[in-house]
Design brief:
The complex is a heterodimer of chains A (664) and B (205). With 664 residues, chain A is mainly α. Chain A is 70% helix and 0% strand. The longest helix of chain A has 54 residues. In chain B, 40% of the residues lie in helices and 20% in strands. In chain B, strands 2-3-1-4-5-6 form a 6-stranded mixed beta sheet, with helices on both faces. The chains are: A mainly alpha (664), B alpha/beta (205). At the A-B interface, helix 15, helix 16, helix 17, helix 18 and helix 22 of A face helix 1, strand 2, strand 3 and helix 6 of B. Chain B: It holds the Pfam family Ras. Chain B: This is Ras-related protein rab-21. Chain B: Keywords: Nucleotide-binding. Chain B: InterPro entries: P-loop_NTPase, Small_GTP-bd, Small_GTPase. Chain B: It comes from Anaeramoeba flamelloides.
C-alpha cells in the first residue's frame, strides 16, 4: 500500500466542504500522475496544550483521528475509499513517514498492522520506485516536503538522507574545483544552471494539473501550492515578532490566495537570480565552510555549518531567498535519489576521536591504543585487498536481502555471518599479521636497546665487556618471553578488531533502522524503567549501600560523564567499549579520592563494584537504557561471550534489573 | 582451546577476591598489554602440554543482588564455591547456591568447593568431614586453601583446569549446520578454486 499524507488546516476541528473538495481534487491529481495507489494512512493533530512544541512544519498534515466524530470519519472514508486508520503511532513514526515522503516525493511507505513497518523491503523498493519518479509532480513534492528535513534529529532516516546528501556535495565540490580556475569570469552562473530544471518541473506540474482537472484547474493549482505557503507562515510564527512584520505583506497576499502561486514562486527565484550579494555569499559559503566540513567528512559538522549559515542568511536576506538556498542544498539529495543507491559508509569520526581523547589520559591505555591502531591498519589492508573485496560485497548483498521483520532473528543471522567471516579471516591472515607486527616491534625496540647498550658499553669498556654481554643475554630472554605472551594477547585483540571493522563497514548502513526497531519494541520497558529511575535520582551514595571507603567526593562524575556518551555511540562494539571505560573511571576515582589503600583493604570486589555501578546508572541522563541493553546483547558475541567487555555488560544488566526490581 | 568461563561464588567477605589476587600474583607480572581489572581475570594454565585459558568472573555475594546472580552463570563451564573455615554459616549457605546453580544452569558443571583461611587453624569451626561430605554429594572436589600464604592455590587451579578440559572434551556441542547454507560459504570455495587454478598454471608452465 502506498502512502500519502494530506494537509488539513491547522487547529481546525472540522473538515469543511471546501477541504473535502480539495482532497478529492488532490487525489485525482495524484492518480493522474501514474499507476500508483494512494491511501490516507494517518491523520493526526496537535492539541492546544502543545503550543510550544515545534509543529512538524511540512505541508503534511495532521489531525487527530481519535478525537473526531464518527460522521467526519465517514466523510473521510467516502473520500478515500478504503481507509486504514492507525491510531497508536508515535511521533517518531510521523516524522519517519514525512521523511520518506520527502525522500520519494510523497510515495512509497510500507506499513504492516499495528504500526510495525517493514523497512527491510524499503531499500529494495527505493531503487525500483525512483525510476518511476521521473514524472514532474514528484519533484515538486520533494522540494516542498524536504525543506525541513534538517530539523529531524534522533531519527534513522535522517542519516540516510544525509548520506546521500554528502555524497552529492562531494561531487559538487569536484565540480567547483574545476571551475575555480576560471574564478573571476564564470562565478555564479554554474550554480544556478541546474535550478532551471527544477523550476521547469514546477511549471510542468501546473500545466499537468490544469489538464487533468479542467473544471477546477485554477482552484486546484492554487490550493496545492497554498499548502506550501502555509508552511512558511507557521514557521514565521515560531520566530520573534519583528521578523513577522517584515514578511507580513507577502504572507497576507498568500493568505488571500489572490496571487497565482506560480508567480509567487517565480518571483522568489528571480530575486535569487538578481541578488548578487546572495550569489557571492553562497559561493564563499560553499568554498570555505563546506570545504572544511568535507575535509573532515563529518556529518554532524556539516549540519552545524548549515545551521550557522542559515542564521546568517536570515539576518541579511529575505525568506524567499532562504527558501531557495535550502532547496539548492536539497537539490543534491534529490539528484542522488533518482540516480544511485547509497554506497558503503564509514562511521563518523567524532566518536572515535572522543575515544582517543578520553583514553589518552592513561598511559597503559595509550600503549594499547597504539597497538590497536597498528593492528587495525594491518587488518584493514588485508581485508580490503582484491581477494576479499568480493567477499565483502557478497556479505553486504546478502545482508541487504535479509528481511528485518523479526529483529532478533535478524540480529542472530547477522552475528553468525560476522562470526563466519571473522573466523575465515583470522584463519587466513592472523599469523601473517602478527608476525609482521612482532618484527616491527622488535626492530623498534632493538634500536632503542642498542643505543642504550652502546652508551653502557662506552662506560664499561674500561671495566670489561663481560658484564655487557651478560646483560644482553638476559634482555634477549626477557624479550622472548614477552613476545610469546604478547602473541596470545594479540590474537585475542585481533578478533575484536575484525569485529569492529566489519561492523563499521557493513552495519553502518542499517544501524539506525535496527536501533529504531529496538526502541519501539522495548518502549514499555523503557518507560517503566524511567519512572522507577525518577524515584531514585535524588538518593545519595550511602543509600545505595556503598561503603564509606568507596564514597567519592566528586560523586563519580567522570564515570557518569563517560556513561552519558553512550548516546553518541551507534555501533554495538562502541557501546560495549564504553562500559570498560566506565569501569576504569571508577577504579581511578576510587584510587585518587577515597580513603583506600589497595594493600591494606584489598582490591575492589564485585560486592563493592556493583552498588557503585547502580549509583552511576541512577544518575545517568539516558532515557532508553533498556532498549540499548537489548540491542547490545543481541549484537554481542553469543557463545563466546567471555571477554572483559562481556563481564561489564552483565554487570550493566544486573544493575538495570536491580533498579527495575525495586519496589516503593 | 577457546576460553572457558569460571565463576567464583560464595558469601560476602569469605575471601573470594583474595584468592583471585593470589592466583594472579603468583605468575602474572605483565601489566603492559592487558589492563588487569580486579574483578575479571584471564589466565593460561598448562595441562600436559595443552593450554587452557580460564576467564574467571567474580560475583557479588550480597543478598540484595543474589536474585540477579544467575545472569553471571550463563555459559559457564565451572564454578568455584568458596567458604570460610572459621564461619559455619558460609558452608551452610553454599547449599543454597548449589540449588540455584542446578536450577539456572541446565547442564552439568565442574564444581570445586574451597575452604579459605586454612592458616587460621586455631579458629576452625567447620570440620573437614562436613565439607567433604557435601563435596561427595554434589560430585565436587574439596580443597583447603589459604590466600594469605598461597597454600594449595596453584594446585587447586591446576586441578580445575584439568577437569574443565575433560568436561569440555566430553560434552562437545555439535557445530552449527546452518552455516553451509549461507552465500558467504561460496567465498571459501572460490578462494580454493583459485588456488587450484594457480597450481594448474604452475604445472603447465
Amino acid at each position: 500500500m502506498d502512502l500519502i499524507l494530506f494537509h488539513l488546516k491547522k487547529k481546525k476541528k472540522r473538515i469543511t466542504e471546501q477541504e473535502t473538495k480539495l482532497l478529492r481534487q488532490y487525489q485525482e491529481h495524484l492518480q493522474s500522475l501514474g499507476d500508483l495507489r494512494f491511501d490516507v494512512i494517518k491523520i493526526q493533530g496537535f492539541t492546544k496544550r502543545k503550543k510550544k512544541r515545534k509543529l512538524i512544519l511540512t505541508p503534511v498534515g495532521i489531525v487527530d483521528f481519535q478525537e473526531k466524530s464518527v460522521t467526519e470519519k465517514n466523510d473521510l472514508k467516502k473520500i478515500f475509499g478504503d481507509l486504514r486508520i492507525y491510531t497508536s503511532i508515535d511521533k517518531i513514526s510521523i516524522r519517519e513517514s514525512i521523511l520518506t515522503i520527502s525522500f520519494l516525493g510523497g510515495i512509497l511507505f510500507k506499513y504492516e498492522s499495528d504500526g510495525n513497518c517493514d523497512l527491510g523491503e524499503l531499500g529494495n523498493e527505493i531503487s525500483d520506485r525512483c525510476q518511476k519518479l521521473s514524472q514532474p509532480g514528484t519533484l515538486k513534492n520533494v522540494l516542498n516536503y524536504s525543506k525541513d528535513f534538517t530539523n529531524f534529529t534522533n531519527y534513522g532516516f535522517e542519516s540516510k538522507l544525509l548520506d546521500l546528501f554528502e555524497n552529492e556535495i562531494e561531487k559538487n565540490m569536484v565540480h567547483l574545483t574545476e571551475k575555480e580556475s576560471k574564478k573571476l569570469d564564470g562565478l555564479g552562473t554554474f550554480v544556478f544552471d541546474d535550478l532551471d530544471e527544477t523550476l521547469g518541473g514546477f511549471e510542468k506540474v501546473e500545466t499537468h494539473s490544469s489538464l487533468s482537472n479542467s473544471d477546477s484547474s485554477s482552484d486546484g493549482s492554487d490550493r496545492t501550492l497554498k499548502i506550501s505557503h502555509n508552511f512558511n507562515q507557521v514557521k514565521t510564527k515560531a520566530r520573534p515578532k519583528k521578523r513577522n512584520l517584515q514578511s507580513s505583506p507577502n504572507l497576507r497576499e498568500k493568505r488571500k490566495g489572490n496571487i497565482n502561486s506560480q508567480n509567487v514562486l517565480n518571483s522568489g527565484w528571480e530575486t535569487i537570480n538578481n541578488n548578487e550579494n546572495f550569489k557571492r555569499e553562497y559561493q564563499s559559503f560553499e568554498k570555505k565552510s563546506f570545504h572544511k566540513s568535507l575535509m573532515v567528512k563529518n556529518r554532524v559538522q556539516a549540519l552545524l555549518y548549515q545551521k550557522r549559515i542559515n542564521k546568517k542568511l536570515r539576518k541579511q536576506t529575505s525568506k524567499n531567498e532562504v527558501f531557495g538556498f535550502k532547496n539548492l542544498l536539497l537539490k543534491s539529495a534529490i539528484n542522488v535519489a533518482f540516480q544511485t543507491t547509497p554506497p558503503l559508509l564509514r562511521r563518523s569520526k567524532t566518536v572515535s576521536e572522543m575515544k582517543l581523547k578520553s583514553i589518552g589520559k592513561h598511559k597503559i591505555l595509550k600503549q594499547n591504543q597504539n597497538i590497536h591502531q597498528k593492528l587495525k591498519f594491518a587488518v584493514e589492508s588485508k581485508i580490503f585487498s582484491k581477494n576479499e573485496s568480493d567477499a565483502l560485497k557478497k556479505i553486504s548483498n546478502y545482508i541487504s536481502k535479509m528481511s528485518m521483520g523479526n529483529i532478533q532473528e535478524y540480529a542472530k543471522e547477522l552475528r553468525e555471518v560476522f562470526e563466519e567471516f571473522r573466523d575465515y579471516i583470522t584463519n587466513k591472515y592472523s599469523e601473517i599479521i602478527l608476525e609482521n607486527y612482532c618484527k616491527e616491534n622488535e626492530n623498534e625496540k632493538g634500536n632503542e636497546n642498542e643505543k642504550g647498550n652502546e652508551k653502557e658499553k662506552g662506560n664499561e669498556k674500561e671495566k670489561g665487556n663481560e658484564k655487557g654481554n651478560e646483560n644482553k643475554n638476559t634482555e634477549k630472554k626477557k624479550r622472548k618471553k614477552k613476545n610469546s605472551h604478547k602473541k596470545e594477547v594479540l590474537l585475542y585483540q585481533l578478533e575484536r578488531i575484525i569485529n569492529e571493522i566489519l561492523e563499521e563497514h557493513i552495519m553502518t548502513k542499517n544501524i539506525n533502522e535496527i536501533y529504531f526497531y529496538f526502541k519501539r519494541l522495548y518502549k514499555k520497558q523503557d518507560n517503566t524503567f524511567n519512572q522507577k529511575k525518577k524515584k531514585i535520582i535524588l538518593k545519595s551514595q550511602s543509600d545505595f549501600a556503598i561503603p564509606k571507603k568507596f564514597q567519592s567526593t566528586s560523586y563519580f562524575q567522570s564515570a557518569i560523564n563517560t556513561m552519558n556518551q553512550m548516546s553518541l555511540t551507534k555501533l554495538p562494539s562502541d557501546g560495549i567499549n564504553i562500559f570498560i571505560r566506565v569501569a576504569q573511571n571508577i577504579y581511578n576515582t576510587v584510587k585518587n579520592e577515597c580513603n583506600y589503600n589497595a594493600n591494606v583493604d584489598g582490591q575492589i570486589t564485585a560486592d563493592d563494584f556493583i552498588p557503585i555501578f547502580v549509583y552511576i546508572i541512577s544518575k545517568v541522563k539516558l532515557k532508553n537504557l533498556m532498549s540499548k541493553k537489548e540491542f547490545l546483547i543481541a549484537f554481542s558475541d553469543s557463545g563466546d561471550s567471555k571477554n572483559e567487555a562481556a563481564y561489564y555488560l552483565t554487570t550493566f544488566e544486573i544493575a538495570l534489573e536491580y533498579i527495575s526490581s525495586l519496589e516503593f | 582451546m577457546k576460553k572457558q568461563k569460571v565463576v567464583l561464588l560464595g558469601k560476602g567477605r569469605v575471601g573470594k577476591t583474595s584468592i583471585f589476587k593470589r592466583f594472579l600474583q603468583n605468575e602474572f607480572h605483565d601489566n603492559e598489554v592487558t589492563t588487569i581489572q580486579p574483578q575479571y581475570l584471564e589466565k593460561q594454565v598448562k595441562v600436559n602440554t595443552e593450554k587452557v585459558t580460564l576467564s574467571i568472573w567474580d560475583t557479588a555475594g550480597q543478598e540484595r543482588f543474589r536474585g540477579l546472580n544467575p545472569l553471571f552463570y550463563r555459559n559457564s563451564k565451572a564454578a568455584i564455591m568458596v567458604y570460610d573455615i572459621t564461619d559455619q554459616e558460609s558452608l551452610d549457605s553454599l547449599e543454597d547456591w548449589l540449588a540455584e546453580l542446578k536450577n539456572q544452569v541446565g547442564h552439568k558443571i565442574v564444581l570445586m568447593i574451597v575452604g579459605n583461611k586454612s592458616d587460621l587453624k586455631k579458629k576452625r569451626q567447620v570440620s573437614i568431614e562436613d565439607a567433604e561430605n557435601l563435596a561427595k554429594k554434589v560430585g565436587a572436589q574439596h580443597f583447603c586453601v589459604s590466600a594469605k600464604t598461597g597454600e594449595n592455590i596453584d594446585e587447586m587451579f591446576h586441578e580445575l583446569a584439568k577437569r574443565v578440559m575433560k568436561f569440555v572434551k566430553e560434552n562437545k556441542t555439535p557445530l552449527n549446520t546452518t552455516k553451509s547454507r549461507r552465500n558467504f560459504a561460496l567465498v571459501n570455495e572460490d578462494v580454493e578454486t583459485k588456488k587450484k587454478k594457480k597450481k594448474n598454471n604452475d604445472g603447465c608452465c
